[in-house]
Specification:
four-stranded mixed β-sheet; alpha+beta; 4 strands
């Protein structure tokens, strides 16, 4: 019994140490894996579309009436995390990265103010 406890403790220590090393050596990987986990648990998939002159990256999934999740400035579609899972069972979810944020590219010469983003979204 004591030998099993030592083995289990050693395995737990290795897992904890490995997780700590990954977290501190590659935090971007942890963020990406967390976002991917939230997408998959909500049943969403990543898509791309070109609207006007912009390439949009967005999440889509679920069934029912559509809810459009829009992020704020400096954020992205993955901001919503596990909240999307709460809605995807009853609604279709669309969560885009607005141009210039997240995975949707922007350009230095473009305007990213609210009126310009609204016009792009309307397109």
């Amino acid at each position: 019994m004591k030998k099993k406890l030592v083995i289990i403790s050693a395995i737990a220590a290795v897992i904890l140490f490995s997780g700590t090393v990954i977290f501190y050596s590659s935090p971007a990987l942890v963020v990406k894996l967390t976002a991917l986990s939230a997408r998959l648990s909500a049943g969403l998939s990543r898509h791309e579309i070109k609207a006007g002159k912009q390439r949009w990256v967005y999440l889509d999934g679920g069934k029912g009436e559509t809810i459009l999740f829009l992020h704020g400035y400096g954020l992205g579609k993955d901001l919503w995390g596990t909240l999307l899972k709460e809605f995807s069972g009853s609604y279709r979810i669309i969560a885009p990265d607005l141009p210039g944020f997240g995975e949707s590219p922007g350009s230095l010469s473009s305007d990213y103010g609210v009126p310009s983003q609204s016009a792009r979204l309307h397109e």
